[in-house]
Amino acid sequence: MSKNRSTTLCRNCPHQALDVFCTHTADETSFLESFKIGEINLDAGSTVIEQGAASAHIFTVLSGWLFRYKTLEDGQRQILNFAVPGDLVGLQASLMGKVDHGVEALSDVVLCVFEKNRLIELYQSHFHLAFDVTWLACSQERVLDDGMLSLGRRSAKQRVALLLWNLHQNAQRTHSFESRDIVPVTQSHIADAMGFSLVHTNRTLRGLARSGLIDWVDRGFRVRDADSLHTVAGSPAPNPKQRPLV
Amino acid sequence: MSKNRSTTLCRNCPHQALDVFCTHTADETSFLESFKIGEINLDAGSTVIEQGAASAHIFTVLSGWLFRYKTLEDGQRQILNFAVPGDLVGLQASLMGKVDHGVEALSDVVLCVFEKNRLIELYQSHFHLAFDVTWLACSQERVLDDGMLSLGRRSAKQRVALLLWNLHQNAQRTHSFESRDIVPVTQSHIADAMGFSLVHTNRTLRGLARSGLIDWVDRGFRVRDADSLHTVAGSPAPNPKQRPLV
DNA sequence: CGTGTGGTTGAACAATGTCAAGCTCTGTGG
DNA sequence: CCACAGAGCTTGACATTGTTCAACCACACG
Question: What is the reported pLDDT for B2?
């Protein structure tokens, strides 16, 4: 973890400038500023929430990539979804007490920290923000719906193509590429997200690379032909234009 | 659809009597009564929300079973989850405009109907209920998390055993058995929920039946040995004791 | 008595997993 | 500077799991 630095004020939140995010009223911004209790910088690979643990905090992704996962008794891991800037992390754990999934940093990340005990104040005093929180929870649900469709019914090639396309899109929308358009994942991450073995994942990725749709680089990939990738993926599944920010 | 009958008042809601559900204050109950605009009775097999359509309503399950699903272009269907009494249906569609999943009645059902446009009033005037709505959304998310782990990483036998066990538990908690402890699903439903072919599902179910864990009856199953079923399923994954009701 | 839906089974085949090996980096300690 | 170890990627051969095709049965309903 890097040393603590002075914290970003919500009024200066870089996300406000992005088209993807809805804007706040001045009142909401100042409330959020008081609601935010700090920031946390984590290195790639660190654990944000441990599987099975209760967290005293809710986080918001300021920059970087995370993923949520569940591990089976025998050690097999399933990645549930990836989180990008603007996503809420730990809402489930906050509302329902401990839950059985972990969260890990995929890249170096900066998170805004909120106290879970004060979430109810947000509901009490700023119902539009409360509505936005619910919106984000539903949007998360939508992502999982898509994931289930992929895991249950799509072929290896489609599944992987769709995942890569989604990651690429999220990176674009939130300006979250690593250097030179690279999304920072390993093939293990892809395998664990798709429910495939590492070997099978590798073969599928090599296939996509040989067809010129992507390049696999060290610990990441670059999309070479987004349209063809989207075609292979099969499903249009457009993401909402704009989303609330908390 | 059956003929409309006089509507259940929230103050007489049968769910209030069940241990699983939290209770409301008198104020909340009366607000919900004014919020509820009607009831709808549907026969087994009817569509509640069409895939890709926007719905003007939010529903609450008063009695019966539903399931949410997504269909691929080529007609393959993935069942995302099953809904039992107390579950919220259509929240996603309400908050995010149209979404790409459908909802269908598995058994005859009775749903309470709310106007989606008035949801914001609930957030404005009853923040505890708003909090409960978010709780339910998160709990839905948790169910999907489990589903993804199953689809991605569990063997056929485990997957099916766990699903049956969960369905059985939900039926118990909400008193939603069909006659004589039967959960009303076909093998097609199981197959579509598990991402398996019908044939493979049949073989897996026969296996469980031969081991004496379940009986398969016409259009449904009965759990014969819940503990062994749970053991085969492998994962404890206890459900929360109590949940809010809206 | 057809006809349709739901369930059951076998056999051939396709998709995916497992095992085993080797390759290329990068970082670290001698 | 070199040797070595570990992480990530790649590939082949073979085992297992799951799908497809093609029947057939039982029952409910007109």
Answer: 41
